[in-house]
Amino acid sequence: MAYGEKLIDHYENPRNIGSLDKNATDVGTGLVGAPACGDVMKLQIKVNAAGVIEDAKFKTFGCGSAIASSSLVTEWVKGKTVDEAETIKNTQIAQHLALPPVKIHCSVLAEDAIKAAIADYRRKTGKAAPAAAAASEPAKVAAE
Amino acid sequence: MATKATEPTKSAVTRNIPLPIYLDYQATTPTDPRVFGAMLPYFTTKFGNPHSRSHSFGWESEEAVETARGQVAALIGASDKEIIFTSGATESNNLAIKGVGRFYKDRRNEIVTVVTEHKCVLDACRHLEQEEGFKVTYLAVQKNGLIDLNHLREAVTDKTALVSVMAVNNEIGVIQPLKEIAAIAHEKGAFFHTDAAQAAGKIPLDVEAMGIDLMSISGHKIYGPKGIGALYVRRKPRVRLHALIHGGGQERGMRSGTVPTPLVVGLGKACEIAKNEMGTDNERIRALSDRLYNGITKQLKDIVLNGDRDHRFPGNLNLSFSYVEGESLMMGIRDIAVSSGSACTSASLEPSYVLRALGVEEEMAHTSIRFGIGRMTTEAEIDYAIETVVKHVKKLREMSPLWEMVQEGIDLKSIQWSEH
Ligand SMILES: Cc1ncc(COP(=O)(O)O)c(C=O)c1O
Ligand code: FES
Fold first, then answer.
1. Do B1 and A42 touch (CB under 8 A)?
2. How far is Cα B356 from Cα B312, in angstroms, rounded to an integer?
3. Residue contact B328–A66, C-beta within 8 A
4. Is B110 exposed, middle or buried, given 0-12, 13-18 or 19+ CB atoms closer than 10 A?
5. Which residues line ligand 2 (CB under 6 A)?
6. Does B420 touch chain A (CB under 8 A)?
């Protein structure tokens, strides 16, 4: 299989690899997937007082598409509010990286990871999700 | 837009190695130039139909086919008349299993095989089981990939027509105890078939000394052409079988169709070379295999060799790189052609059934890479592979949440994973 250029770039120069302090209250951690399935993603966000994601880090065990998807998502969420970040869709990731159909689940995992990180952050801070606001307002994630 | 092979990296350039490097000799092998040379005249000037009896074009072609038959027979200690040419090991396996099964079905309708066989053996057996009323026993393997002979003894009955066990496994390279298996089959009057696609020309095989009744051979696994293979069918005592392909009655009625002279000549030549050079080939391959294994394990921990350490063909090194997913590693080392047991490389997204059969945990199966070393592999290529693999495994482990957890002392089994 030949890989797309953007995918190769994210795989070879992954952005934001690393870890944040998972015990800090302003850090939300999402851990999704399972070793037995061949893919595990850990995605962390650090949120400031204004609700904006200041930093994001990831570590991924998975194929090149999974690594690239998580790398891309960390780039996208930085500077967004938590609510904006929550609207990121796997289809946007798949489209940006030109993932072939068998690799769509890798982008689904990245969407799940960001959702899980946000949920963790909300649980820690006691901030509930805004009622149905997310669905109506898709974030401008296609910007490059 | 898509990029194919990578730019040659600096170290490869300085070492002057052409990239990409081929380390996938179980998938197929290049045709040896000597084999190709032997084949050429039979495409152009010596193109006769080997079954034409009325002119010299035919006679010349027939003679070449018979010479090749002798070369194949000599490699495995058989006699010429016991060699049937087929299109490859897939056909040979189908012919052996379905052919023998159907011929003896009235008296014996049971077949014994192993879960780690090649798909074509398993599928042929599955067909007989589901469509034709056979009983098939699929033996499990031990952790090292070898069958337990006691289990085999329990599985073979006086209703067993055929025991089919491969010689060398294509994924992990382990060598099954053929002679012992044959003896157990024969105790109950069953025939013993072995799929030797990965074994012929690689390890010494002697149908007489080992008691093998049928053996499948593939041309393209032994530096011969693709699309040609052979089935050895014992004549004393005679093994009988139903043909799969009917027509002109070629190959003693067991395989109709014009015998493809150039391909057959190529297979014969490949067998001859393999017989003459097996010793020196294997010495080199073993040294390269040890070099690769030692080079990697000296610099990386948590590497697991899949399959028995001793009973193996050294040209197959199947390694699990714990906490690094196989396909991502293949992407990193993509100027080295290897294959992976990882799910992600297959359409099915299931990890290798062979590794699973060994009891390799799924997460470890996802981290496996098969390195295939062969006649054309050089030391410089192995050194390049070591350097590249080590570099990328280190990088991917730094990126791996599993590696991080394990370094922090977290037991991965204690975590509630969200399986999907
Ligand atoms: C063990 C084994 N059996 C059978 C085959 C099929 O061989 P062929 O490609 O000649 O049909 C292969 C090759 O993929 C193999 O490795
Ligand atoms: S993580 Fe398995 S295919 Fe991408």
1. no
2. 18
3. yes
4. buried
5. A 38-39, 62-63, 65-66, 103, 106; B 344
6. yes
Nearest atom in ligand 2 to the alpha carbon of residue A38 is: 2
pLDDT of residue B37: 98
User: For the segment B257-307, what is each residue's pLDDT rounded down to a tens digit?
Assistant: 999 999 999 999 999 999 999 999 999 999 999 999 999 999 999 999 999
Q: Which two tokens stand for residue B404?
A: 């991080």
Nearest to B94 by CA among B115, B116, B125: B125
How much is the pTM? 0.91
Cβ-contact B244, B256 below 8 angstroms:
no
Answer yes or no: B271 catalytic.
Answer: no
Q: Which residues contact B392 (CB under 8 A, 6 or more apart)?
A: B329, B332, B333
Q: In chain B, whose CA is at the least distance from the CA of A67? A: B328
Closest of B117, B233, B134 to residue B172, by C-alpha: B117
Task: Please write the tens of the pLDDT for every residue from A68-81.
Answer: 999 999 999 999 99
Give the torsion sign (CA, B190, B191, B196, B197). negative
Please judge whether A61 and B323 are an interchain contact, meaning their C-beta atoms are less than 8 angstroms apart: yes
Which tokens hold the place of B156? 């073979």
**DSSP H or E run through B44:** none
Q: Where are the alpha helices (DSSP H) in chain A?
A: 5-12, 64-77, 82-85, 90-97, 104-125, 133-136
Sequence-ordered strand ranges (E) for B13-134: 21-22, 83-86, 110-114
pLDDT in tens, B345-400: 455 556 789 999 999 888 888 899 999 999 999 999 999 999 999 999 999 999 99
| B332 φ/ψ sector (left φ>0, alpha ψ -120 to 50, else beta) | alpha
Model ipTM value: 0.86
Strand order in the sheet with B339-340: B303-305, B316-321, B368-372, B339-340
Cβ pair B208, B177 in contact under 8 A = no
In this structure, the strands spanning B191-195 and B214-218 are parallel
In angstroms, rounded to a whole number, what is the distance separating the alpha carbons of residues B132 and B104? 13
Q: How far apart are the first and last CA of chain A?
A: 25
Q: Which two tokens stand for residue A38?
A: 């061949």
